[in-house]
Write the structure tokens for this entry.
Amino acid sequence: MQFGRSYEEFEVGAVYRHWPGKTVTEYDDHLFCLLTMNHHPLHLDTHYAAGSTQFGQNVVVGNYVYSLLLGMSVPDVSGKAIANLEIESLRHVAPTFHGDTIYGETTVLDKWESTSKDDRGVVHVETIGYKQDGTVVCIFRRKVMVPKENYLEARGGEQPGRPVPVPDKNWAGRDAAAPERP
């Protein structure tokens, strides 16, 4: 399975549809709020949300939706990234509620080679997140520094730093014959 892309693999106009989606639970939303100390009752207090807001129910905190989409995009976009350079824009355009399933896709807007180092480039992308009914809930643009193929080759190839399993008393190794079963 591919995890991220090198600079050469990105094409302007390409669209990566991230899979699978994620159904947002009340637990997900509340845990994220508590971990990040966002105690707004719109996200945590069902009674408040039901009687004091236009939605009549808790709204999933936007930063969780953004974080979820950013994470969904990693295998397709930034899994090999050298650096996330900039979040250019972030818009929450519709609410997400407990029980909604979020899907995402990313479009490559532009790319250019680094002017300071010849082994990397920058990719400019836009990610949208949408619910199970197709309603777009979040849109963000970012710039990611990604390696060129020569950068990856110089550092160990496709999976740099991956260890090799060592045969021992529990595992004889790949080349050993399979043990007989009783």
